[in-house]
Amino acid sequence: MNGVKSSVAVNQHSCHVRNGSITEGRQKEVISPEDINRGILPDTTAPVSSRMQELLEGLNEPGDCGNPIEPPSWLDRQLFNRGRDFYHRYLFCMSFSEVLALVFMLSMMRALRPLMYTGRSDSPRKALRRYFSTFQHVTAWHEGDVWDPADRAHKDLLSVRAIHNRLSGVFNSSKEHDRVWNTKIQDKGHEEPACPFYHTIREDLKDQAGDGLPLEGPDNPPFFISQWDMSLTQYQFMGLVVAHPHKMGAGAATDEDLEGLVHFWRGLGWLLGVDDKYNFCRGSLAEVRSLCLEVERLVGIPALAKADWNYEHMTLSLVTGLSHLMHTLSFEAGFRYVAYTLDLDIPNFISRMSMQGTIKYWLMRFAIGLLYYFPGLVIRLSRMLRVATAVFQKRYANGMNERGGSKTGELYPVTTPFTY
């Protein structure tokens, strides 16, 4: 997008604020334990928090603010490493939550349309290759030392940051912006089937979602890969675990563990170019948890209630592809688990589920429930996931390269909040 177009978008968003869609001066509310377990805000009709207002100011700010690669003054190395250790021990839970976050947040058009436009994840095979690469990125970041310039993890993270900048320039250019924003999955040859699920999703959620926040519209086009988008990327990687630890299999984690996870992603956000003002993980555990729940209620769920064939096809491709690694995954089971996590009532969707989808959903519930009573299992499951992914990488790497995948050792970018 050119500079004039960007400034217009900024001014239009400011009008949203002045017209009262966003109430100023609201203090951060601390969510009660009961509401945390239910996954809801105490008053879903309340104005947005001051912290959310702050994040919204980044809607039209470029995603890389130019942070230096040196550690910021607020970095607590001990707490950061505690987050790395948590990620290592709870890798199974983190991976599970990241997949569910995609099922949830792919409904956001400002994130989904660039994915459709690039055409690199609109089939199960392509989606598997793309999101498996994302897994490799994040694994490298928590297993290496991102603060050491000589470490592979540091170099990999900075390469992702550079790719973000390049893609932002492409998507926001005067030549490509309108094409990206107006793309549809039918343009890629994926016609809508006779009985899709998205009509059912809309029917179930129409009275539970609300209007949501006015993030973009015909007269207020999005700035792709903005500070806001990068902030939601952080939510996608840690938000469900922080806001709903029991439902993600991390019920045995302590507050200190989760504080480490939050600080870990605050540090990664800094290195990816997220201004600390817009860093989703800035603040105490209670504040970040409240922000997670607020994003879910005021951004994610309203977007999900407007699901269409674009969302359903891309999510179906994602989950079908990843089911080669996590065999209990399916679109039906994954969506129902998201609804369970967010305390959403979806009777019509459940009535349409296949027997196989229902069985997979209850297998998820059973497995995650076991982790609460037998927390030692999560270490074994995380180890099994590492072995499975190593086998997968070795088995399919050459085939991917032959079919036009990445060169050996080259990974796809982790972007906002998904991979393009």
UniProtKB/TrEMBL annotation:
TM annotation in the entry: 87-106, 362-382
UniProt keyword annotations, A-Z: Membrane, Transmembrane, Transmembrane helix
Name of the protein this chain belongs to: Uncharacterized protein
Organism per entry: Penaeus vannamei
